[in-house]
Amino acid sequence: MTGRLTKLLDPACITLSIQSGKRTTAINEVARLLDGHPSVSNFQGFYNELLARERLDTTCLGNEIAIPHARTEHVQSIVLAIGRSQSGVHFENCNQTVRLMFVLGTPKSNPGAYLAIVSSLCKLIKDAAVREALLGAATPEEFAQILTAAEEKILAPA
């Protein structure tokens, strides 16, 4: 199914301890998890476009969540890195504190798949119980399992 977040989850691209409390430094910290990813052809180009998009408008969704993202020619397929901060990262462009950050890169040629992933992510994280479970996950593997279980529950036929 298009838009399956589960297919993008890789514990190696999840950090549960963002060190920086500043927006651009924290975005860099999470995005760096994608440096060397086989689908990222030019990490610096991707990162520059990520920051350029962030300057245009906030990527904060509320509920201590942000989805910094870029549609770029520097990725061949959708990539995802996730960061969690216990103390929070200040996003001054929206005056919010973010504790969960989902960094997405998507090919310019595939906006539909990107929109499906963002839609799935928004459905999952609007659930307060899922957010609390993600904030309490002990390992990147557990974090991925929580997202996978939540996605399966949402996609299960009624």
Question: What distinguishing features does this structure have?
Answer:
single chain; 158 residues; alpha/beta; Mannitol-specific EII, Chain A; 6-stranded mixed beta sheet; 40% helix
Number of strands: 6
Radius of gyration: 14 Å
CATH class: Alpha Beta
Q: Which structural class best describes the helix and strand composition?
A: alpha/beta
Overall, the morphology is globular
Low-confidence stretches: none
* Number of H- or I-type helical stretches: 5
User: Major β-sheet, in short?
Assistant: 6 strands, mixed
Q: Order of helices and strands, N to C?
A: EHHEEEEEHHH
Domain PTS EIIA type-2: 7-150
Keywords: Sugar transport, Transport
Protein name: PTS glucose transporter subunit IIA
Pfam family, one: PTS_EIIA_2
Can you walk me through this structure?
The chain is an alpha/beta fold. It has one domain: 3-Layer(aba) Sandwich (Mannitol-specific EII, Chain A), CATH 3.40.930. It is 40% helix and 23% strand. The protein is built from 5 helices and 6 strands. It has helices at residues 23-31, 43-56, 111-125, 128-136, 140-155; strands at 14-15, 60-62, 65-66, 69-72, 79-91, 96-107. Strands 1, 2, 3, 4, 5 and 6 form a 6-stranded mixed β-sheet that branches. Helix 4 (128-136) runs antiparallel to helix 5. The longest helix is centred in the C-terminal third of the chain and has 16 residues, at 140-155. The protein is globular and about 35 Å long. The relative contact order is 0.21. The model has no long low-confidence stretch (mean pLDDT 90).
